[in-house]
Specification:
- With about 375 residues, the chain is α/β, with parallel strands linked by helices.
- About 35% of the residues lie in helices and about 20% in strands.
- The strands form 3 sheets. Strands 1-6-5-4-2-3 form a 6-stranded mixed beta sheet. A 6-stranded mixed beta sheet has the order 7-14-13-10-8-9. It has a two-stranded antiparallel sheet with strand order 11-12.
- Helix 6 links the parallel strand 8 and strand 9.
- Helix 3 packs parallel to helix 5 and helix 6 runs parallel beside helix 9.
- Keywords: Signal.
Length: about 375
């Protein structure tokens, strides 16, 4: 009897644990592409409660002209825009870089939960668009309701949008629209300066700076890249459907390349359509390979590495033990392994982040083979 009760309790707490930590995120295109595929229902009027509810701002800028691996200065853009938002009485309480909210499924879910906890009502996307063929750079602002989930904005959701090559004109026109809307105002304590968030709590278990020895006996689950799944394809126009088809074709290419790289992994593994902790555990597996994408500094913060504020570069050790020096602001990929039940994260004993996911994965496999002495 006691043994039966104990078994039930273990099963109960296991279920609760996996429900708590299972990734709620779905496959999300990044940056400008993420917004384009939403096929938003653009409205002529600003959201009704914009001046009486909290707003989170997602910022996106092109690559730096000085270094193609580094983002342009997005914080200066945010600071300039925030001054205008404050005058409009828009309570922009949190600023994120757009790609960072999709750094990984766990980061995505963590940030969405934090927004929900802070009672964010609106998502404002502030974009500096890439220079077009005529050499013109435009700015665009999109505002829509926060859907309380890791997608942030749903397909065909109502939104307000404006675009202009001149940021000052853009913000000035937006302010005129705010005044004309005569919205109810309750935002009287708008912060003077933008508050930037570049971290997310994604490590729920122990942080282990080595490789999992149990991989010698347990299969490693390798999640495939996910195609973009339409909530309702009948509601999407031909242009958006074409963009989704192109995105999914790229996913097929990546999955083919993933299979090729994994041929060098010497232990047992299984490719999976799901990265959900509960799905993986129910399939009888314990370990999953995860990746995270962002600046080297942001990744190290999310994975709880020790941060030296004066450090300007990180030295990554590539497959073959060659050294690659990259700016702390370079956008890179990093692979690590998670135990789906304990949530322990095995980060590896060497910093092996790299500019492409392919190279980062090759680095991970090389160092794991070296440390675990497997070929």
């Amino acid at each position: 009897m006691h043994k039966h009760i104990k078994t039930l309790l273990v099963s109960f707490f296991l279920a609760i644990s996996l429900v708590k930590v299972s990734s709620l995120a779905i496959a999300q295109p990044k940056g400008e592409q993420w917004l384009e595929l939403k096929n938003l229902d653009i409205q002529p009027h600003l959201p009704k409660y914009l001046l009486s509810r909290k707003t989170a701002v997602l910022v996106s800028v092109p690559w730096s002209k000085k270094d193609p691996n580094v983002r342009a200065d997005w914080k200066t853009l945010a600071e300039k825009a925030h001054s205008a938002f404050k005058r409009m009485k828009i309570d922009a309480v949190a600023y994120y870089y757009l790609d960072d909210v999709f750094a990984s499924p766990d980061a995505n879910a963590s940030i969405a939960k934090e927004m929900e906890r802070r009672e964010i009502k609106y998502i404002l996307v502030l974009e500096q668009l890439p220079t077009n063929s005529a050499g013109v750079t435009s700015y665009r602002i999109t505002i829509s309701g926060f859907n309380d989930g890791p997608g942030f904005i749903s397909e065909r959701q109502k939104a307000w949008q404006t675009e202009n090559p001149d940021l000052n004109v853009l913000l000035g026109d937006m302010r005129k629209d705010v005044i004309r809307a005569e919205m109810e105002r309750e935002n009287y304590l708008v912060p003077d300066i933008p508050e930037f968030f570049m971290d997310a709590k994604i490590l729920q278990g122990k942080r282990i700076p080595t490789y999992a020895m149990d991989l010698k006996v347990d299969k490693l689950v390798i999640p495939k890249f996910k195609k973009y799944e339409m909530e309702d394809s009948t509601a999407l126009d031909a242009s958006t459907l074409q963009k989704i088809a192109a995105y999914n074709a790229e996913v097929d290419r990546r999955n083919k390349r993933l299979q090729e790289i994994m041929l060098d992994y010497p232990l047992e593994y299984v490719l999976s359509e799901s990265s959900d902790d509960r799905d993986i555990y129910n399939q009888g597996h314990q370990f999953v390979l995860l990746s995270i994408h962002g600046t080297g500094k942001t990744i190290r913060e999310m994975l709880n590495y020790e941060i030296d504020p004066y450090e300007t570069d990180y030295v990554s050790i590539r497959a073959g033990s060659t050294l690659n020096t990259l700016s702390v602001d370079a956008v890179v990929y990093k692979y690590y392994v998670k135990h789906v039940y304990t949530q322990d994260a095995y980060l590896g004993s060497r910093w092996d982040a790299d500019l492409t996911w392919e190279q980062a994965l090759q680095n991970f496999i090389f160092h794991m083979k070296d440390i675990l002495k497997v070929q």
